[in-house]
Design brief:
334 residues, mainly alpha, 11 helices, 79% helix, globular
Length: 334
Amino acid sequence: MRFSSKTVGTAAAVVTVVIWTSFIVIARASADPSRGATLTPFDIALLRILGASCILLPWGAWLVRSGTARGWLGLSPLPWRTTALTGLFGGLLYAMFAYAGFFYAPAAHASVLMPGSLPLWTTLLAALILHDRITPARALGLAFIVAGDLLVGGASLLKAFSGGEVWKGDLLFMSAAFCWACYSVLARKFGLDAVRATIAITTFAFITYVPAYSLLLATGGVTSRLGAVPVGDVVFQVLFQGVGSVVISGITFTQMVRHFGPVRTTMITALVPGLSAMGAVLFLGEPLSPYLLAGLALVTVGILFGVRAATLKNPEAAAKNAHSVMEWARKNAR
């Protein structure tokens, strides 16, 4: 049975948005210490890397052995320097910061701060490294996003004086967005395609994180709760965080861009902050404060306005600029 291009593109969009939205809700549910025997951020990062490695490492080895790619260690289809640079930010630090953030802050905060901080960091890094010009339309859209981030992060930071720890998660979410922005700009600078880049960053994460995690666990440097949760939960995390968030969403995102184009894809994925925030309310029982609602609205409007205004003025330039903002999807939220 053959499906039309529209059907495939629409299905890819639905799958991508569902996975991105679920990533935020599930990661918080898995790391929230108030829920009892949950996994640690280190455990979730390990399961994510192992799940993705089961598929991507053999794929990378096949590319290297077939001679279609220059290999590193027989696994990564990219040279070692490119693998290390992109893998450090997109494969290792991003996962560690993001999952650690869910230990301190609610999923609704991640819904605002990770998608909201990403366009800001990406724009600034692209201007610095790639010499991209920040147009007035993009600047106005970023102003909305920054205002939304300040409403959410600023409110939690004020509560730090009374002993609150949510601000730590907010800073970790913004750090995760910064790391993914670094990866996005590097991928654009090196002209990497989605498949080989995803394989490369997974390879780097595997050969660095798994041995380090094992050593720290053996020496008591970190604790693990893998033995305290049901086996089914561990298998689910491997499948969702690794196979779903990394592999499947990377493929469906690429298909979205092919069918809808980068600008329309950005507008579709702008649904994620609102949907994930509502998911946090429905499934996790998290409250939505007025500050959080206002921040969510400003971030969503900023993303939509920045891309739409740039499209009306210069469609080709807008498509190029939107691509750098969307690169974060190739690994995630995730």
